[in-house]
Structures are given as structure tokens and as C-alpha cells.
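WARN no homologs supplied; continuing
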Amino acid sequence: MEIFKEEEAKLGDARDSILCHFIITGYVAINTDGVAVTLKRDGSDYSAAIMGKILRANSISIWTDVDGVLSADPRRVPLANVLPEVSYDEAMELAYFGAKVIHPKTMQPALSCDPQIPIYIRNTFNMRSPGTRIFTNATT
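OK structure emitted
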């Protein structure tokens, strides 16, 4: 996408010379007129994925209120388990069928990178939980 190239160009060489972690808030942004707006459902997750792509991150962490991607809807299957890993395709399919843990558009920026960026789903309220890694193959 052209907008990614435009934003990457703004960072220039500074991005490659900095080794650090970025903690970026989401949900609030500005539109093309400079007016503050909210990003609506999954806006903060999507903005995290965009920033991960622009910054050429090694990984993207999405902090939410569940321990990760579950094997089933816990309201219907009380013994649903957290899946330690799922592929991007599996995560897309789960989202398509109603899983609310990650929106398909959130994965697009990470998928479009070379190499692709793994996404981690982690629980803000249970930091000991390792969460779920969403990836393309065993090397990402």
C-alpha cells in the first residue's frame, strides 16, 4: 500500500539505527484534516499492526482481555483451551466465523511484510499466560 511507503519514508534511516521497544496507544488518531477521531472496533489492534510493519518489527503484541486464541467459544465449550500457536490462515478463518480476539484486517500489515511478522495475542490481566502466536510457518 502506498500509505505504508509514505510513512516509512518519514522515518528514514532512524528506524534502522534504533534498537528499542515501542509502546503505542491505539484507538485515537487524527484524520487527514488533523481532527482527532476514534478508530472504532479493533482500531488499536490494526494501528499496532501498521506500526509494526512501518517499524519493521520482529513481532507485534496485541494485549486484550483473554489469554489468547481459544480452541472454541468458552461460552459454549467450558473446557476450551488456549491454542499456543495458530497460522494466519487459521486465525483468519476463526475471525471469519465470529472469533472476536483478532480482526482479519489486523493481520494484513503483518502478512504483507517480508519476512512476515508474527502476532502475539496476550492477556493484559494475566501476564504469566504466554498467549497465542499467530504465524505463517515455524520460522516466523
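Residues 91 and 124 are 20 Å apart (CA to CA).
OK
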